[in-house]
Amino acid sequence: MSQTFKYPTDSVFANDSAFGKTNSGKERFVIFHCYDYKIRNKKSLDNISLENTRLVTIALHLPNSFQEDISQDWSTGVIFSGSSVVGKGINWLKSKLGDSIGNLGTARLGIAPNPSEELLFSGPGLRVFSFSYDFTPRNQQELTQIKAIVASFKRFSLPLINKSSLFIQFPAIWKMDISGIDGDVDDTNFVMFGIKDRPMALTDVGINYTPEGSFISFHDGFPIKISLSLTLRELKPLYREISNMSDDEGKEIIDNISSGGEL
After folding, report:
1. How far apart are CA 86 and CA 109, in angstroms?
2. 133 and 185 share a domain?
3. Rounded to the nearest 5 degrees, what angle is found at the Cα of 157, between the Cα atoms of 156 and 161?
4. What's the predicted TM-score (pTM) here?
């Protein structure tokens, strides 16, 4: 049975179904679900999916530092064939300079073959989410929860090694829910991240034990304040058809903004 940790302890309910619901109704929470990286249907290429063996669940408030990065891979390349463009340029240079068309030869004319390069799309990138948290325990209960939260992120970001040391198992994977944003929202809500049930890898865990510039700890040695930064990267690329909004929804929002309407 997986464990559940939360911070702050007085604003998040104890059971999974109620996570993120606060008395004010204004706060938002990120629910991190951690699973073992195990493949179903290994003997068949049909319906391959990941096991849903949950290791731990962590509920944290949506921090002030929360970033979504969407990138695509573009690289330079030659669109036209060498025989049609570059080749013709080289042949023309040879007619002027003979076979000596190196740097010295082209420098005599002050010209060089046009490489005819353009920026070409080479593939989709993987979306990245970054979080940054400050933890300041106010009582023993919060201190215990913070210790468990930091230890869980550290532990499950690491791979496993088998007894023979010949192979290592992938680190755990994560899924996130952002309460009140990625769930039951109306169609006019532009801030939808489309991350629900999207598996992600925890690629970076950063812990600053001296965010105030000096090390001050409780009697057990745990700092009175720490900063935690997390970077999660999606395992699969995001495509327009499976993003957080359809083409029609996106067009409707853009048209509404262009006409002076509201989001």
Report:
1. 17
2. yes
3. 75
4. 0.73
Among positive and negative, which fits the CA dihedral 80, 84, 85, 91? positive
Q: Is residue 42 part of a domain?
A: yes
90 found inside a domain: yes
Supply 25's token pair.
């109704």
Mind listing the pLDDT tens digit for each residue in 1-33? 678 999 987 765 444 444 444 444 556 788 899
Query: Which tokens belong to 151?
Result: 């230890």
Instruction: Determine the 3-state secondary structure of 240 from DSSP.
Output: helix
Out of 84, 100, 122, a domain closes at 122
Quick one: 153 and 64 in the same domain? yes
The CA distances from residue 180 to 14, 17, 191, in Å, are 17, 13, 10
- Both tokens of 254, joined, read 């853009």
Q: Are 66 and 103 in contact (CB under 8 A)?
A: no
What tokens were used for 145? 């929860």
Give percent of the chain with pLDDT exceeding 90: 30
